[in-house]
Specification:
This is Ligase-associated DNA damage response exonuclease. Its EC number is 3.1.-.-. InterPro entries: MBL, RibonucZ/Hydroxyglut_hydro, Xnuc_lig_assoc. Keywords: Exonuclease, Hydrolase, Ligase, Nuclease. There is one protein chain. With 341 residues, the protein is α/β, with parallel strands linked by helices. It contains 8 helices and 19 strands.
Length: 341
């Protein structure tokens, strides 16, 4: 990119030369603004972290004793003449977009985001800008999400059916974000809700900020007879592991945007697939870009080539930049960093 650009991309991350600050850098830097707590965006080793207040406990839980400052939504902080502010991204709890303004030029880095209000995190707010840096994890027309109320109705009905058949229900979702969204809308009147230790530990960090039902962590002492007919929420990496043996007989379900692909459920060997993502679908991406008023769009992580080509056909100045962000990993059975397990 030309030096005139307010934000550039280099080997360490997205960089603001005027402010000498990085946004979600993937290599250690002196000063980093962090959009959210998933480990492809929030990495260990930076000297100074700045993020939204609600993301501070998440970063400390995951990264340990770090030097981190929290700011409020819309609070302007000035670095070397550049005005920065954080705005809700709607991805997970504490997720932010970063607005960057200098000499009348406004850029927005969305991080990961979704424009559906999930009732758990602060809803996404479109921010007017000249240039928008957007993910496009699900940036093809095949991805179109159902309303989450319908999805959770299906999940609770599945749980009830399994319970009637004497089976335990095991539902897989990312430890940070997806798991708490699942917990928020499970119907506790059906039965007990158990969690994998990784899910339980993260949930305890988030409980002060979001209303969640009571949960019981699965331990060595948990008896199969006691858990039968219950719901278990676990990270994708638990699927197929010895940890699962105590739940026999059980059925499994996976919550992911990738479940919209025919055959995805079979490839993961799960009994049910629920299309539930913490990212925008195709229409959500297009709507968000339109509402930003941006004339220039930079696409990162996802279907970048297809999505940027379509934007150019619509008249946008659209391009692609490579990053180390992973979005919602398609290989849900791997213990990847993006799973936050």
């Amino acid at each position: 990119m030309a030096q005139r650009d307010l934000l550039t991309f280099n080997s360490k991350g997205i960089y603001c030369p005027q402010a000498q600050v990085y946004l979600d850098p993937w290599k250690p830097v002196h000063r980093a603004i962090i959009t959210h707590g998933h480990s492809d965006h929030a990495r260990f080793g930076h000297r100074h972290y700045l993020t939204h207040h609600s993301n501070v406990p998440i970063l400390r839980h995951r990264l340990g004793d770090i030097q981190v400052q929290g700011v409020a939504w819309g609070e302007v902080f000035r670095i070397n003449g550049v005005n920065f502010s954080l705005h809700p991204a709607g991805h997970i709890l504490g997720s932010s977009q970063v607005r960057v303004e200098y000499q009348g030029e406004v850029w927005v880095f969305t991080g990961d985001y979704k424009d559906e209000d999930d009732g758990v995190c602060t809803p996404y707010v479109p921010i007017r800008c000249h240039t928008m840096i957007t993910e496009c994890t699900f940036g093809i027309p095949a991805f179109k999400w159902k309303p989450q109320q319908q999805v959770f109705g299906e999940i609770n009905s599945w749980w009830q059916q399994n319970q009637a058949e004497g089976k335990t229900s095991v539902l897989f979702g990312y430890t940070l974000g997806k798991a708490q969204r699942i917990l928020r809308y499970l119907d506790p009147s059906i039965g007990r809700i158990y969690t994998h230790g990784a899910v339980e530990n993260m949930t305890e960090v988030l409980r002060p900020q979001v209303k969640l039902p009571p949960t019981l962590m699965v331990t060595r002492e948990t008896l199969t007879a006691d858990i039968r007919g219950s719901m278990v929420v676990a990270p994708p990496s638990a699927h197929g592991s010895p940890w699962m043996r105590r739940f026999v007989p059980f059925e499994t379900g996976t919550c992911s945007g990738w479940m919209a692909f025919r055959g995805a459920r079979a490839r993961r060997s799960t009994d049910r697939g629920y299309v539930l993502s913490d990212h925008c679908d195709w229409l959500g991406l297009l709507r968000s870009i339109r509402e930003s008023g941006a004339s220039r769009v930079i696409c990162t992580h996802g279907y970048t080539d297809i999505f940027s080509k379509y934007l150019r056909e619509l008249g946008y100045d659209a391009s692609v930049e490579n990053t180390d962000y992973e979005g919602e990993k398609e290989d849900l059975n791997s213990a990847s960093a993006a799973e936050s397990t």
